[in-house]
Structure formats: structure tokens, C-alpha cells
Design goal:
The structure is a single chain. This protein is mainly β and about 230 residues long. It has 2 domains: about 30-55 and about 155-225, no CATH class; about 65-145, no CATH class. Helices cover about 5% and strands about 55% of the residues. The longest helix is centred in the first third of the chain and has 17 residues, at about 1-20. The protein starts with a helix and ends in a 7-residue tail after the last strand.
Length: about 230
């Protein structure tokens, strides 16, 4: 009899686990602008961009939210920031916070990595907190102020290159080249670039070729002839 009861309990546990699934990332290839078309840019705009970015669905939390008082009930706090979707079931998506803490009067404050905010799939206005995946029911105070966003997977081989227009001085055009790895600019891979239009209206850098149509200290009209090389896998 005990054997059958054990099998039944395991089956129920497996069913519960199977109902929750991991949220898969999305790989986006950034490649703009289109080749050959006339493009416009303001001072400080990115004029060429290419890369591969792996992202997850996410929530941007604008305000600090709490649950509990720290005495009768443990107090949970989620600080503003981005929460990444990690799990989902038939009804909810669970967004985990890396800025969540728990507090009680005896143990004090400690990080809590197993909770965050959850959103009902058929009603995005239904936002609650959770301390355990599968239980989306806790009302944090004040109400969470959230917006939909994308969260970059810093463990993936993300890489992005961009060329930024930095204006014109006499016949010299100025640009800033930058590389990004993960979610952060790499200062050691930033470089100021200048070109003299007396040498022609086609400029090139790291595989990029641009035909300058018109340039001033505030605007640039151009055509992209070729872009950066495709990102490595």
C-alpha cells in the first residue's frame, strides 16, 4: 500500500513540474540601415549598427515594492530594475528579480533569488508577486509599475558594432566607433575616427563603406554601401 502511495505522490509531483516550462531566449540580428537607401542622421545618432543579441522577455520595474512586515510575516522587497522571464505555465509568466531581498527581525536581510513578479497571460494588467513558481498570488505594495522590455542574456556571446556621427568641422567628418559585449560598452574598443572630404565622399572603416551625400555639423545624409562583417557564431 505504501508503495502505491509513493508512486502516486511522485506522479503528482511530476505533473506539477511538467506544467511549468522554461522561457526560451530570442536571438535578434541587428543590421541597419538597409544597403543603398538614402538615410538621414542627426548629430549623435548611430548611422551603422550590426550585431547579434540574445534576449529574454522582461519587465522593467519602476518602483520599489514590498510584501509583509518583517515581524509577523517575512518582509520581501523588490527594488526597481529589470526582471527576466524564466518560467511559465498555462496561466502565468514568472519574471525573476536579481534585486529581491527578504527580512525578518531575527535573521535580518538576505538576498532572495527564487521570486519576483508574475503576469497573467490573458490579462497583462494582472501583476502579482511570487515566492515560489506556480503560485502567483501575492499583492505587493504599492502596486508594481511595470512596462514590457527585453533583457539581454549576458552569458550568451552577444556582440554589436556601431558607428556614430559626431559632426563636421571644415571638411572633416567625425565619427565614434563602439563595440558592445553583453549589455556594456567596452571602452577599450571605442575609437574616434575622422575623414577629410577632400579625399572623396566615400569613407570606410572595418568593412563599412558609406557614401556621404550631404553633411553639416548637425545632420548627415548618406548611403550605406557595405556594413560590418556578419557576427561570428
Amino acid at each position: 500500500m505504501l508503495k502505491y502511495m509513493f508512486v502516486a505522490v511522485c506522479a503528482l509531483g511530476l505533473t506539477a513540474c511538467a506544467s511549468t516550462q522554461s522561457v526560451m531566449p530570442r536571438v535578434d540580428i541587428v543590421d541597419r540601415p538597409e544597403l543603398g537607401g538614402l538615410a538621414q542622421a542627426e548629430l549623435g545618432d548611430t548611422i551603422v549598427e550590426k550585431g547579434k543579441i540574445t534576449t529574454y522577455d522582461g519587465l522593467a520595474l519602476k518602483n520599489e515594492v514590498t510584501w509583509g512586515d518583517g515581524f509577523i510575516l517575512k518582509k520581501f522587497t523588490i527594488s526597481p530594475g529589470r526582471l527576466r522571464a524564466r518560467q511559465s505555465d498555462s496561466s502565468f509568466t514568472y519574471y525573476y528579480s536579481d534585486k529581491m531581498t527578504t527580512y525578518d527581525a531575527i535573521l535580518g536581510t538576505s538576498p532572495y533569488a527564487a521570486g519576483g513578479l508574475c503576469v497573467k497571460k490573458n490579462d497583462p494588467s494582472y501583476v502579482r508577486g511570487f515566492f515560489q513558481t506556480g503560485k502567483c498570488k501575492n499583492n505587493f505594495k504599492p502596486a508594481p509599475e511595470v512596462s514590457v522590455t527585453r533583457v539581454i542574456d549576458l552569458d550568451a556571446p552577444n556582440f554589436r558594432q556601431e558607428l556614430i556621427y559626431n559632426g563636421k568641422s571644415d571638411n572633416t567628418l567625425k565619427f565614434l566607433y563602439r563595440e558592445f559585449s553583453g549589455d556594456y560598452a567596452r571602452p577599450s574598443f571605442s575609437q574616434d575616427v575622422q575623414y577629410d572630404l577632400k579625399d572623396g565622399n566615400t569613407i570606410g572603416f572595418k568593412g563599412v563603406r558609406i557614401e556621404v551625400v550631404e553633411a553639416s555639423n548637425t545632420r548627415l545624409s548618406y548611403r550605406l554601401i557595405s556594413s560590418f562583417p556578419d557576427p561570428r557564431n
